Amino acid sequence: MGRKALIHQVEARERRGRWFGALATLLSIAVIASTWIGLVGFLGANAAFGTFEEIRDEWVPDVENMELSLPDLSRISRIYASSGELLAELHDGRNSQPVRYQDIPETVVQAVLAAEDKDFFEHDGIDFEAIASAAADSISGNLRGGSTITQQVVKQVFVGDEISIRRKVTEAFVAAELERRFPKTQILEYYMNSVYFGSSAYGVKAAALEFFGKDLDELSVAEAATMAVLIRNPTFYDPRRHPARVVERRNNVIDIMLEKGWVTEEEADAAKDEPLGVVPHQPFVGEADHVVAEVKRQLLNDPKFSMLGATAAERKQAIFGCPADDTTCEGGGGLRIETTVDLDLQKTANEILRKWLPPLPPDENLEACQQLFPDEDPDFLENYAENHSCAPTGAITMVDNKTGAVLVMASGLDFEFTQFDLAVQARRNPGSAFKPFGLVAALENGITLGHRFNAASPQTFECPYVCSEEGNKWTVGGTGVNGYVTLHEATARSLNTVFAQIALHEDVGPEKIVEVAHRMGIRSPLTPVPSLVLGTSEVTTLEMASAYTPFATQGLWAEPFLISRILDAEGNVIYEHEVEQKRVLDERVAAAALRPLRDVPTGKGTASRANIGRPQGGKTGTHQSYRDAWYVGFTPEYSTAVWVGYEAKQQPLENIWINGEFYSRVYGGSVPAPIWAEFMQIVMEDIPVSDFPPEPAGMDEYLRPPKTRVPNVVGLHVDSAVARLREANLNPIVREAPSIEPEGIVFAQSIGGGAEVDMGTGVTISVSNGRPPTGSLPDLVGMSFDAAVEALRAFEAETGVRVNLTRVDQPVDDPGAHGIIIATDPEPGAEIAYGVTIRAVVGVPPPPPDPGGNGGNGGGPGGGGGPGGGRGPGGPGGGDGDD
């Protein structure tokens, strides 16, 4: 048909130049008749046309000076996943998928011509014979049109469908002029791509898919003929509602195809015997409809897609094409919109959410809504339950740490149930999952991981302004520790009272925490109050996943994005996202913050159920009264946020069954954490294990504890002593021991007052138990007196037993015993009490003989004067004896 059509086109151009003027007059005179009969009768006459110039001037349009151009056809736009899977087809009621003329199978072209204009390639835009035939049929009551395909195009595009003779005349002249300006094949291509077939299908390709589920080159003769039947009247010839009348008309079209020699008699007979074969309407069912909704929202509203149009209407047409009911609209659509979504992981996330948190059947959901809203009107609740879930549900969002690409945006509820996207639209309180932003603010303002804070719970804090319902007082509870802990430990163990002190710290404060959170990727409005650090402002899972990426990348962050590239209908790239990482944290701050976050899932923190056995970090979050539960975790590659809660309202997650397990209360570590682990194990199963970047130099200033001075606590009661040591950020170690001091009084400390040490250093304090100390007397026999003094000093230091030592000299003949203790009283090993006097007997040389024989009676040990007298030098607490 292609070569034959071209020959006809050349001949037609020659003829048009000869008879166009005459045609104008002939059609003008037809107005006189005002009926098809008069028009047909007149067309058979051979009268000269000169006498009718006045009529021609009034009725014949100046087509040679008309602006005639075939409109740009509207097209379907399509959204694709990252791997090329089709996610959605976008149109505004006009399912239009134009194809080039040369790509339309000849059988389809012939079927359309047989149904609508069998002599299309023979006439010059107006088929007088067809008009006459239509007029004759009209007289007999069989109303049908006589318009050629070219006239149909003119009616559709240029002159409209007003019922008037003037419009019909104009249509004829414009049709003739259109064929003078455009090749037949171009007119036919436009027609076959724009004509309406019913069920929102415009054009042959869309019709083939709609009614047969096939591409054009897969259609049989019978199917092509069936499709062509629908053009005349898509409602009257709806094949799903009126199959019998469609079959009758189809067979008539096949007969015309046989008459024209386009099919053989055998092919015609076979086609007539073929069942209609029309398939039910098969609407496109996407597997990521919430993602599609977010893509559409961004395309329509985000300034970065301004190339689609300056106004909302322009953008809508650029994306969805023309509305089906707008005949003046042309162009639009045809976009290929490529996203970052990993469809396999998206489906996995949805499956996991539905396993853990399955939607309730309608009757059970209504019952649950009645329990949530016991005071609401029953009619309101019935309507509410149709579009809202009153059972716990969840959301999972995952982003690429290095690029910001959004790989998963899974909402726990089906799009058909609710169009509300829990992943990107639902703002919920993150609880303690917000603490890492407070941690960063502290590290940036002089507080190190080694700083120690009072971790007791509850505590009431004074605020410099109204900060709670208590006015300028704020009472904070939660898990507590009896004593002071480091900021590192407080983060891993999620201790509320410590982070309350961070928020109230004069060097930090709520405003700095807000600034850090926004810098790291939170875009929701945040209220700068101290409780912000505990997660009282609402955020989305996408924001949280994005804002955790700098912990994995040592402070680098990339804007999260969902749409990676857009191509127009001709395949030109009109938008492509450019990844740009920017530094939002000092690399040392990010590396320091990573340390306690790595401890959270590894058994040292609150999310042991999130442990997947490879480098990871994260933070749990549980909002007040257990209304929302979170786990935001990350590996070196990805950051993923999991939220669990109620879609209908923030209701306590208490006394509920989830995934076959009963929970009296749901915490971030009890449900979101294992959901995260189950999902991430699948995500990471084919990814080699890698670690976070090595820590940079200069970390010490963010890790080491600051210095403090040790207070002197000797003489204080133990409670006061412990309090003073803790206030100095020291770790008091209490040791009870016998002492002459009253019970509970500190009588010694391991580090003396005034010494400068690291915060957190342990200081042992000895506290009296109210009993004087006792000890076993060391064996001093064989020692010199001076050595015995040192031994008793050591004994006193060890036992706290203070003793007095006196010396008693005892003459002995053995020179080896001279100057040596030969005995003690009490004896070695005896149990002695505090303050006892020890008598040490020291061997001395005997006195020389008295030459005069007048030796007196020498005194005994320690006795009085005379040559035989001895000395008793005092030991600890003792003194020298007098001569």
If you had to describe this structure to a student in words, what would you say it looks like?
The strands form eleven sheets. Strands 2-1-6-14-15 form a five-stranded mixed beta sheet, with helices on one face. Helix 1 packs antiparallel against helix 7 (165-181), helix 10 (221-229) crosses helix 11 (243-259) and helix 16 crosses helix 17 (378-387). With 883 residues, the chain is of the alpha+beta class. It starts with a helix and ends in a 39-residue tail after the last strand.
Give a summary of the structure in a few sentences.
By secondary structure, the protein is an alpha+beta fold. It has 27 helices and 31 strands.
Radius of gyration: 49 Å
Estimate the mean pLDDT confidence. Answer: 86
Which residues sit in consecutive blocks of at least 5 with pLDDT less than 50? 1-52, 854-883
Q: How many strand elements?
A: 31
Q: Descriptors for this entry?
A:
single chain, alpha+beta, disordered C terminus, rod-shaped, 883 residues, 31 strands, five-stranded mixed sheet, 36% helix
How are the secondary structure elements laid out?
Elements: H1 2-30, H2 36-43, H3 53-59, E1 77-80, E2 86-90, E3 95-96, H4 106-116, H5 128-139, H6 149-159, H7 165-181, H8 184-194, E4 196-198, E5 201-202, H9 204-212, H10 221-229, H11 243-259, H12 265-273, H13 289-301, H14 312-320, E6 336-339, H15 343-356, H16 362-372, H17 378-387, E7 392-400, E8 406-411, H18 435-444, E9 452-454, E10 459-462, E11 473-476, E12 484-486, H19 487-492, H20 496-504, H21 510-520, H22 541-552, E13 556-558, E14 563-567, E15 573-576, E16 581-583, H23 587-604, E17 617-622, E18 628-634, E19 638-646, E20 654-658, E21 661-665, H24 672-684, H25 700-703, E22 707-709, H26 718-727, E23 731-737, E24 746-749, E25 756-758, E26 762-768, E27 774-776, H27 785-799, E28 804-811, E29 821-825, E30 831-833, E31 837-844
Parallel strand pairs: 1-6, 3-5, 23-26, 28-31
Antiparallel strand pairs: 1-2, 4-5, 6-14, 7-8, 7-19, 9-12, 10-11, 13-16, 14-15, 17-18, 18-19, 20-21, 22-25, 24-26, 27-30, 29-31
Helix pairs in contact: 1-2, 1-3, 1-7, 2-5, 4-10, 4-11, 6-7, 6-8, 10-11, 11-12, 13-14, 15-24, 16-17, 18-21, 18-23, 21-22
